[in-house]
Write a structure and sequence with these properties.
Elements: E1 2-6, H1 16-28, E2 33-39, E3 48-51, E4 54-59, H2 72-81, E5 87-91, H3 96-103, E6 109-113, H4 123-142, E7 145-148, H5 151-160, E8 168-170, H6 183-189, E9 195-200, H7 209-216, E10 223-228, H8 234-244, E11 250-253, H9 258-267, E12 270-273, H10 282-289, E13 294-297, E14 311-314, H11 320-330, H12 344-355
Helix pairs in contact: 1-12, 2-3, 3-4, 6-9, 7-8, 7-11
């Protein structure tokens, strides 16, 4: 079987969708011929390369504010070559490549993983969300099967699009369990005089990193915030840190290797993700695998992680005092093993079953 995975961005870019496509593709490539069709607005990455047995084809695109990923080159390639693939699996409702894949559908089986959370990531993108829905509906109509990464996402899809319930499969994101085998050793060796708060993700407004910066001001001086990621709102976060007087207690990291990122998860005393819009929350899964307690917003798919043992919630509107006290509480607790963690091997196997239906 020849499979095309279509997505806006791919490795070495990082993010939830990027990780998802990377992990399933390299596993499926052990059995099938897999290509990733993606975009590169920077124009700096190889146009064609092999990544762990997967052929990656990158097309130039327009991505203002790291959004949309509009690529006529990708669209033309799909229109001309979609018949060469037995199956096309498109990812991410919130960017154009999935729409282009749907409009190019001919005889190939078409699978769609929307990673859908019903909102744009900025005021302007939110305005465009409603008119785009007229086009986005076409993706669901063309899909032979839809794979959602959480029950929350499935409910959103059912509420917002005319999709038959039996067409939707829920398969969560996974983790590489073997990556976390050394976490006990890392935790034992870390500097225990510091209390590390960790954020991992794109630095965008909807992630609400600003609340963490404000909370840091009210925490003891040995509490520090480590931010792993990049995004359009980073300058605003840097300015906010300066305004509230915590610049020296925040460290920014980006483009870390997987080994370096796992170390960050393991060294952290608490992981915090306050997004209002998440289809799954892969960083929460990875923090739990690293035996680090988590605080999440009681919103979207993040609420599915809350167990009040290892993952605690804060409600919107977020009260900084309550957030501060919860951070103090969680840095003292031990994580209870979660039964919600699934390996990427299991995820790939379940996706393969959908392919073969």
């Amino acid at each position: 079987m020849r499979i095309a995975q279509v997505c806006p961005r791919f490795y070495p870019d990082i993010g939830g969708v990027e990780t998802h496509v990377y992990e399933i593709s390299k596993r499926l490539a052990k059995e099938f011929e897999v290509e990733v069709l993606t975009t590169d607005p920077s124009g700096k990455l190889p146009k064609i390369e092999d990544v762990e047995g997967v052929t990656v084809r990158r097309f130039k695109s327009l991505a203002p504010g790291d959004a949309y990923y509009f690529s006529l080159d990708l669209y033309r390639y799909l229109k001309k070559n979609s018949v060469k693939y037995d199956l096309i699996h498109a990812h991410n409702y919130h960017a154009f490549p999935a729409l282009f894949a749907a409009l190019s559908k001919r005889d190939s089986r078409f699978i769609f993983t929307p990673h859908y959370h019903a909102h744009g990531h900025s005021f302007f993108r939110n305005l465009l969300h409603k008119p785009y829905k007229l086009f986005g509906r076409k993706i669901f109509e063309k899909a032979d099967a839809v794979i959602c990464v959480s029950n929350y996402e499935k409910r959103l899809v059912l509420d917002n699009f005319r999709v038959a319930g039996n067409k939707i499969h829920v398969i969560p994101n996974g983790i590489n369990l073997e990556e976390f085998e050394e976490v006990d050793k890392i935790k034992e060796q870390r500097d225990k005089s510091l209390r590390r708060i960790l954020f991992v993700g794109r630095i965008e407004k909807y992630k609400r990193l600003d609340y963490l910066v404000k909370a840091l001001k009210h925490l003891p001086e040995n509490f520090v915030l480590e931010v792993v990621g990049k995004g359009s709102c980073k300058p605003k976060i840097v300015k906010l840190a300066k305004d509230v007087g915590v610049t020296g207690r925040i460290k920014f990291y980006q483009d870390l290797s997987r080994k370096e990122l796992v170390r960050k998860y393991a060294e952290a005393d608490v992981f915090v993700l306050l997004s209002k819009h998440e289809a799954y929350g892969i960083a929460v899964a990875e923090a739990l695998a690293a035996k680090t307690p988590c605080i999440v917003a009681n919103e979207a798919a993040l609420k599915e992680w809350v167990d009040n043992k290892s993952v605690y919630q804060v409600d919107y509107p977020i009260d900084i005092d309550n957030l501060t006290e919860l951070i103090k509480k969680l840095v003292e607790i031990d994580v209870v093993e979660s039964d919600k963690l699934v390996s990427w091997d299991e995820v790939a196997m379940r996706i393969k079953r959908v392919y073969e239906l």
